[in-house]
Amino acid sequence: MSPGESMDMGGSADITSDAANLRTDLNYLLGEHLILAAKATGAALDGRTDQFEAYGGLLNTNGTDLGGAIGSVYGPEAEDEWNRIWSAPNGFFVDYTTGVATDDMAVQDQAVSDLTEIYVVEFSAFLAGATGLPEDAIAGLVTDHVLDTKAIVDAQAAGDWEGAYEAIRAGYAHMQMIGDALAPAIAEGNEIDGEAINAGVDFRVALNQLLQEHLFLASFATDAALGARDDEFAAAGSTLNTNGTDLGAAVGSVFGPEAEDEWNRIWSAHNGFFVDYTTGVATDDMAVQDQAVDDLMTIYVPEFSAFLAGATGLPEDALAEGISEHVNTTIAIIDAQGAGDAAAAADADRTAGMHMRMLGDTLAPAIVDGQPESFQ
């Protein structure tokens, strides 16, 4: 089954309808925006100019992808207006980050004023007009996004890595709240087929968001490790582990505690193998790298494929191919990070994140279709 293909779910909810796809797309891109912004600001504050430019470029691409999603429903004028409004806060956040880096409160205050008095106002009015949602409610959500991003920048600048990664996770989850508010209103107001909200779609969105978050937390961690930023690596690694147990809980909510424990065992091991690979890259030790790849391909891929095939009924060979691609796309990130090729690393980061969406979109329909009683 290809990602996004509509299924006859029998008694279970259709989770691959146009409305469900809209919600999944919006949440994916909104979550990606938050992560790319955090990667850009962290690089800027640490003087990693090439990395800042690479993630800043991806942040702009993500914004136009969001504009394209809006334009596909509302037309080119709405797309242009989205792009105009959406690009402005990226600049305002750069201003704020510059103010924090230089300890210039006037610059910080002006940036916050621009964000709250220009961006929030314009964006809320635009979205209210497009969706029919109350402008005040939208303004509250958009203001929270501003405050979430500000909290990330403040913690990064202070070297409070535990606080920074807590803020990144909170900000990422908040972007889903925005997508979850917008998508149903857009779908209903434009007669888009299917339901944007039901138990099955909720599961699909949650799984996709957690899988994408996993990939980006992993690349945060490997970059910190390769850059000898030990405190950041510890915080990113801890957050990565929490994401993994959240994924396990999502699986356990459908298949029970034994399946949750097995997910956690397999998933934790593969995180460790990637740490081993990163260590090998950092020390230029090919034997360590080769052993890590062998562990990933001969332990993780077969075990995880067998586990998922048993849970979903999907073909084990097809799952193994998809999981192997996750291994390869993650290795590509680490190799580029280790080589100091910031542009290639950022591009590989986004590609690998997109692959996690493909994995989630394959698993979720099979899980919902196979366990309809869990999604009534």
Mean pLDDT figure: 95
Radius of gyration, whole Å? 21 Å
First-residue to last-residue Cα separation: 23 Å
How many domain units? 2
What series of H and E elements makes up the topology?
HHHHHHHHHHHH
- Kindly name the structural category: mainly alpha
Spans with pLDDT under 50 lasting ≥5 residues?
1-12
Provide the helix percentage. over 70%
Number of helices: 12
Largest sheet: none
Number of DSSP E strands: 0
- Oligomeric organization of the protein chains: single chain
Query: Which percent band covers the strand fraction?
Result: under 5%
**Gross geometry:** globular
Can you offer a commentary on this structure?
The protein is mainly α and 376 residues long. Helix content is 85%, strand content 0%. It contains 12 helices and no strands. The model is unreliable at 1-12 (pLDDT under 50).
List keywords for this structure.
12 helices; 0% strand; mainly alpha; disordered N terminus
Short description:
This protein is an all-alpha fold. The chain has twelve helices and no strands.
